[in-house]
Design a protein that fits this description.
Layout lengths: L4 E5 L5 E2 L4 E3 H7 L6 E5 L7 E7 L10 E7 L2 E8 L4 E7 L2 E7 L4 E7 L7 E2 L44 E8 L4 H4 L8 H22 L2 E5 L21 H6 L1 H8 L7 E2 L1 E2 L6 E6 L12 E3 L4 H11 L38 H11 L5 E2 L7 E2 L12 E4 L6 E2 L7 E5 L3 E5 L2 E2 L5 E8 L23 E4 L3 E5 L2 E4 L11 E12 L10 E11 L5 E2 L12 E3 L3 E7 L10 E7 L8 E8 L3 E5 L7 E3 L5 E3 L2 E6 L4 E4 L11 E3 L9 E2 L8 E4 L13 E2 L6 E13 L2 E11 L5 E11 L5 E3 L6 E4 L10 E5 L3 E5 L2 E5 L2 E9 L5 E11 L42 E3 L1 E2 L9 E3 L8 E5 L5 E5 L11 E2 L9 E2 L2 E11 L2 E11 L1
Parallel strand pairs: 12-13, 12-14, 15-17, 22-30, 32-41, 43-47, 49-54, 56-63
Antiparallel strand pairs: 1-11, 1-16, 2-10, 3-10, 4-5, 5-6, 6-7, 7-8, 8-9, 9-10, 12-20, 16-17, 18-19, 21-24, 23-26, 23-40, 25-29, 27-28, 29-30, 31-33, 33-36, 34-35, 34-39, 37-38, 39-40, 42-44, 45-46, 46-47, 48-50, 50-51, 52-53, 53-54, 55-57, 58-59, 58-62, 60-61, 62-63
Helix pairs in contact: 3-6
Pfam families: CHU_C, Reprolysin_5
InterPro entries: MetalloPept_cat_dom_sf
Protein name: CHU domain-containing protein
């Protein structure tokens, strides 16, 4: 268990006043209207932000307080808690965090948070109870070793990169306010201000953790957690932060019943100027569950520290130690210090770390009364069990049919991923592409690309990102410039995640694929000599005008068969609605006809009007793309003036196009043909759909190429190709009770060779009769279920027949009597031989029921040769060896404790069904037995 302490500094806390102010009473009344509520927030030195606010019910929150989360263009951008006297919260937009504050006169102000986020890190070596985490950094420039599969306890999908046990957990979160914070500028001895901060924090972290992690928090709303005097304070003002965290749980439990909370972050004024500090993995242990501290600056600070408590490390490349270094600069996700970014999501790297333990190695209470323990946990760890609800939703499936394990692009070139997927319950899917070059052990970071929050549109582009820093002042994020895309090899995790806000106990699940992106020396993939006009005035083209495009192609990287697609944006490159050319050779030149539409301008840098037309050329089945304008707000794109006298060229409506590459498991799951829409064209437009099966191996394993063609009366043809991969690689699964191995006596009736049922994902139920084989004293029934594509599953039942004891027949010699004579009769004494009877040999007896609590019930083997050793090997259901003893019974016996194969060292308790193989001597002969044993 690692327990590094993390600190988030706030060395300089400077706040910038907002332009607009509002009375809390007015704001509270305004938010009493029906939802959703639109409140245009006036941000300092920026335009008003029209945010849609949705109320979130915080458990135990009194009626005089109301909490809301804010969304702008479907992105989570803020949280506020209101009463008639107070307003508090946090808004994050375009790389900045803004804090809501209330003056003594009840006026709400919105101020830009300019606190420093630089961090220090200190090991907890002073406390032996906290294991020190060793991360020695070296100068060798290489990634950490690949992530190894953990020992599986509860994970439903052992091969998944981000694990889940399907349990949504509910934590009771305490936020104790120490006297040093209660009597400070943060709360000014006002209990209602404390509660407003509590409610806003709960609303924020639930929006984040429910969406990304699969847990939520119920506030421990108890004024006993507000320490209002120096006599009952937890820590004195100016205590060392390290002492606060090391002694947090012990100290809090002396003042508050530990049975009333599951997790706590102590709000206290420690000596160092850090925002917060926490012990890693402390959320999983009862004796560590309050080993965290923070200042109540903003809700995102608390969310960050709780992330450490669940096991997440830092992710930034610059600004501190003990970090995976997977994010550029000071980072972008919640586990970074990226004050330039919202930090309203977890990176895939953080989620892998959290869910490796939370989603695999933690038990839980299946009832709210917390009496029924469910699931397994690693012995000696995971003592902090909470109430959880098991959900049955299936994980999404990321379409891998068009993904490659490695991509090669030239340097200084934009690139993108097109991700698609499906979900069995039709839950909302978000798509994610994060760089994943972990560098704990290297001083050098390999992070080169932005880490973006997941989105429902699977087109994730790595290009120069622009934002309006102030009114009419547009700035690029420097790290997104392709000039930083220098040669190297980079690891990316591509993922699909499912979400269902309507289901309170929905556990988000992830399907993740790892790919490599190799940036090579070569000619950048760029559009050349495109005329966007001048700085003073961007150029206007005519609708229907023919353009000849030229772009640079490195033939050493892109092969002769390489193809491109050409698209058009009318909103400065945010989206690309128009397809100018569905497929063209990637040879550096192509003629296109502009659609007969109007494309206008937007306000750009220094308030100048800039054309919004941008052409995009993208490599099909590759990552590279190029733009006709890379500075849409500085240089500007172009405009199009619609020709009212010319027919609009026939084009496909991009929003109506189906996913170009999809994968289904069965032929009966192939989607019906899409209803593709067209725009423009001469007269009536006719449609034709052609289908072609290729690479067919069986009825449920092939690629279906579906071509949609559209023709107008001017004989203009546009088409769209869709590739549907039918890939049944899943074997049937037996359902119902499966016969187990048994041992019977010779002469007893053999168990019936039953017909079993197997369920196939494509064919449905299959009836399977067994093959029977006999050998010596053993009979084996073998059931094999095979689908039409050859996927099969096998079940066997082995019946061992113990022979009856052999008893030899007694030998009796008939007495010999001489024939008597008349004279002197002589009779010889009859001789009778005593019958010889062999004692029956006692058979081996195996007691295969084991109890971890009853010492009398251990794995016992009787009637072997007492002067010879016994060897015992025990395997789990995965075939992994959990116990081995070559001198069984002499040194120890198996009482349900493994002696090998643990993930944390030491011995661990087992439970469930296991398989044994024993080797022993009987009557001087070496023999072996195998079978099942049961541990409970």
């Amino acid at each position: 268990m690692k327990a590094i302490l993390y600190y988030c500094c706030a060395l300089v806390i400077g706040l910038q006043a907002a332009n607009a102010q509002q009375k809390t009473q007015e704001l509270f009344n305004y938010f009493s209207q029906p939802q959703p509520i639109s409140w245009a927030v006036s941000l300092p030195n920026a335009s008003s932000l029209p945010i849609k606010w949705q109320e979130r019910k915080v458990t135990s929150q009194p009626r005089e307080f109301r909490s809301f989360v804010g969304y702008y263009q479907d992105h989570f951008v803020g949280v506020i808690t209101l009463s008639k006297e107070y307003a508090t919260g946090e808004i994050f937009y375009q790389g900045n965090s803004y804090l809501l504050e209330t003056s003594e006169k009840g006026v709400v102000s919105i101020k830009k948070d300019q606190s420093s986020k630089a961090c220090g890190v200190q090991n907890s070596s002073e406390k032996q109870s906290l294991t020190r985490r060793q991360y020695y950094e070296g100068n060798e420039d290489k990634n950490d070793p690949p992530i190894e599969k953990p020992e599986i306890y509860n994970s439903l999908y052992p091969d998944a990169l981000i694990h889940t046990d399907g349990v949504f957990r509910h934590y009771r979160l305490a936020l104790p306010v120490d006297y040093s914070i209660y009597n400070s500028k943060y709360f000014n001895r006002d209990v209602n201000k404390v509660k407003a901060f509590w409610y806003a924090t709960i609303a924020f972290i639930n929006e984040l953790y429910r969406n990304d992690v699969g847990v939520d928090f119920t506030l421990v709303d108890d004024e006993a957690l507000i320490f209002t005097t120096t006599e009952n304070q937890l820590f004195g003002r100016g205590s060392r932060a390290n002492d606060v965290v090391n002694d947090g749980t012990i100290t809090l439990n002396k003042h508050y019943d530990p049975k009333k909370y599951d997790l706590a972050v102590i709000l206290t004024d420690y000596r160092e100027k850090y925002n917060g500090m926490a012990a890693v993995y402390s959320a999983y242990e009862q004796h560590n569950k309050a080993n965290a501290a923070a200042r109540p600056i903003k809700p995102s600070t608390i969310a960050h520290e709780i992330g450490h408590m669940f096991g997440a490390d830092h992710t930034f490349s610059n600004g501190g130690n003990y970090t995976s270094k997977t994010e550029i600069g000071s980072g972008q996700s919640i586990m970074s210090y990226g004050h330039e970014y919202p930090r309203d999501f977890f990176s895939l790297i953080s989620l892998e770390t959290i869910r490796r333990f939370l989603g695999n190695s933690m038990a839980y209470y299946a009832d709210e009364a917390r009496t029924q323990v469910a699931g397994k946990r690693v012995e000696g760890t995971g003592s902090n069990l909470v109430y959880g609800v098991k959900s049955n939703n299936q994980p999404p499936v990321l379409d891998r049919s068009h993904l490659k394990k490695e991509y090669v692009i030239p340097k200084d070139t934009y690139f993108q991923f097109y991700l698609t997927g499906r979900d069995a319950e039709n839950d909302t899917i978000t798509y994610i592409a994060h760089q994943a070059d972990r560098r704990f052990h290297s001083t050098n970071s390999n992070a080169r690309f932005m880490t973006y929050k997941g989105k429902t549109n699977g087109n994730i582009r790595f290009e120069t990102t622009w934002f309006e820093k102030e009114r009419n002042t547009f700035m690029p994020i420097a790290a997104t410039s392709p000039l930083n895309y220098t040669p190297g090899t980079f690891t990316f995790w591509l993922a699909a995640a499912d979400h269902n806000r309507a289901d309170r106990n929905h556990v988000v699940k992830y399907d993740v694929e790892e790919v490599k992106v190799k940036i090579a020396e070569g000619k950048p993939f760029q559009i050349q000599n495109f005329d966007n006009g001048s700085w003073e005035q961007n150029r206007t083209y005519k609708g229907g005008q023919l353009l000849t495009l030229h772009w640079q192609v490195d033939e050493n990287i892109f092969g002769k068969d390489s193809k491109v697609r050409i698209l058009l944006s009318d909103d400065s490159g945010k989206t690309y609605k128009y397809i100018l050319k569905e497929t063209a050779d990637n040879n550096g030149t192509c003629d296109v006809i502009l659609p007969n539409i109007n494309i206008g301008t937007t306000h750009g840098h220094f308030g100048k009007q800039r054309g919004q037309g941008v052409i995009k050329i993208e490599v099909i089945d590759g990552l590279a793309f190029a733009l006709s304008c890379t500075k849409p707000y500085h240089v500007g794109g172009f405009m199009i003036d619609k020709n009212k006298n010319a027919p609009t060229p026939l084009t496909l409506v991009a929003s109506s196009l189906p996913a170009q590459y999809i994968t289904v498991a069965c032929a009966n799951a192939i989607p019906t043909a899409a209803k593709i829409e067209t725009e423009g064209g001469c007269g009536r437009v006719t449609q034709a759909i052609a289908q072609e099966e290729t690479n067919k191996k069986c009825d449920n394993y092939y690629i279906l190429k579906r071509t949609y063609s559209f023709r107008d009366e001017c004989n203009t043809i546009v088409s769209f190709e869709q590739f549907i991969t039918v890939k049944d690689d899943k074997a049937p699964a037996f359902v119902g009770f499966l016969p187990k191995d048994v041992i019977i006596e010779e002469g007893a009736t053999l168990p019936e060779a039953k017909t079993l049922t197997a369920k196939d994902n494509c064919a449905g139920n299959l009836q399977v009769t067994p093959l029977v084989s006999k050998e010596n004293n053993k009979v084996v029934y073998l059931w094999k279920a095979t689908d039409s594509c050859g996927n099969s599953i096998v079940h066997t039942q082995t019946i061992l027949i113990n022979p009856k004891p052999q008893i030899s027949t007694p030998t009796v010699t008939t007495p010999t009597v001489s024939t008597p004579t008349v004279t002197t009769p002589t009779v010889s004494t009859p001789t009778v031989t005593t019958p010889t009877v062999s004692s029956p040999t006692q058979g081996i007896i195996i007691y295969n029921g084991v109890s971890t609590t009853d010492p009398a019930n251990y794995f016992r083997i009787e009637n072997t040769d007492t002067d010879q050793p016994i060897s015992v090997v025990i395997f789990d259901e995965m075939g992994l060896k959990v116990y081995e003893n070559n001198n069984y019974g002499k040194t120890e016996v198996f009482r349900g404790m493994a002696n090998m194969g643990t993930i944390i060292g030491g011995r661990k308790a087992l439970a469930g069904t296991y398989f044994y193989i024993i080797t022993y001597y009987k009557n001087g002969q070496l023999e072996s037995r195998k079978g099942y044993l049961y541990v409970r």
